[in-house]
Specification:
It is built from 9 helices and 15 strands. The strands form 5 sheets. It has a 5-stranded mixed beta sheet, covered by helices on one side. By secondary structure, it is α+β, with helices and mostly antiparallel strands. Helices cover about 40% and strands about 25% of the residues. It is elongated. The chain folds into 3 domains: about 80 residues, Winged helix-like DNA-binding domain superfamily/Winged helix DNA-binding domain (Arc Repressor Mutant, subunit A, Orthogonal Bundle); about 110 residues, 3-Layer(aba) Sandwich (D-Maltodextrin-Binding Protein, domain 2), CATH 3.40.190.10; about 100 residues, D-Maltodextrin-Binding Protein, domain 2. The N and C termini lie far apart (about 65 Å). Helix 1 packs across helix 2 and helix 5 packs across helix 9. This is LysR family transcriptional regulator. Pfam families: HTH_1 (PF00126), LysR_substrate (PF03466). Belongs to the LysR transcriptional regulatory family.
Length: about 300
Amino acid sequence: MDRFTAMEAFVRVVESGTFTKAADALGRPKTAVTRLIQQLEAQLKVKLLHRTTRRVTVTPEGMTYYQQALRLLGEVRELESTLSQTRRGPRGRLRVESSGTISRLLIVPALPTFYARYPQMHIELGVSDRVVDLLSDNVDCAIRGGHVKDESLVARHLGDLCYLVCASPKYLERHGMPHHPTELAGAAHAVVSYFSSLSGKELPIVFTRDGERLEVQGRSLLTLNETNAYLAAGLAGLGVMFAPRFVVEPYLTSGELVQVLDGWHPESRPIFLVYPPARQQGAGLKVFIEWVMELFSSRPELWRHDR
C-alpha cells in the first residue's frame, strides 16, 4: 500500500462525504478507493470511518487522523509546488465557480492576462448563481456575492459592489417615473425580483440616502435566480430592477435602461473569493487568488456610485 495515496484517498472521502465522489475527484475506481481505506485502517489498526448504504461518517480517531493528514499533505504539496514553480512556473488544473455576469463581464475578458503569465495553468470555470459545496463538488475556489456564513472557508474580501436601480424606457412609458422607493411596493409599479438559491426567498431592495436606511419588498410579476436572465427581464420592461453598476452601465449609456430614484442607492454588496483551507497551499490557487485580487482592485468603478 502506498501510504501517501491512501492518506489522500481518505482525506477526499472525508471532504466529499462519499466514496463515489472521492473516486471521481481522484480519477480512480470506487473499488480502488474502498480498498485503500480498508488497507489504511488495517495498517493503523483503528476504525477511521463508519459506513452505511446512505452515508459515510468519521470516527473520533478518523477525525484526528484527518486533521494530521491534511497538514502533512499540505506540506508535501507546498514543497512540490515550490520546486515546480521555481523550475517552470505553476501548472495544473484549477476548478473555479462564479456567477454568470461576473464570469462574462469581468473574469473571462481578463483571462488572457492570466494565461500570459501562467501559460501552463488550465481553468475550469463553472458558471452559475447556485452556491455549490466546494468540498463535495471538488471546487478549488469560488467568487461569491454577499456575506460568507460558512466558517469552514477562507474568505478574501474583494470589495463592495455598487448597485443601481434602473428601468427600461418601455416600462417608464407605461408606469411613469418612480420618485420614492416605497412606490415600488404599490399598485402602480412592479419590480423584477431575485430569489436566493439557498433560501428560496425573494431578496428585498435595501436603499440608503443621507444615513437613512429603507427596506422595500417590491410588487413583482417575475422572480428569477440567475443574473443574466434577471437583466434580460429588466431590459424587456417587466419591472424596475437593481443590479451591479458594471452590469447595467453599458445599457445606461445606450439608453436601453434609465437610472431611477435619484439620490437613493441600493446598499452595496460585498463580494468574496472563498476556498477551503486545505487548498491554499497549491501554487496554482495562490497565483489565481493574487490575479483576482489585482483584477478587482484595478476596477474602481465597480465600487463607486458616481457616474
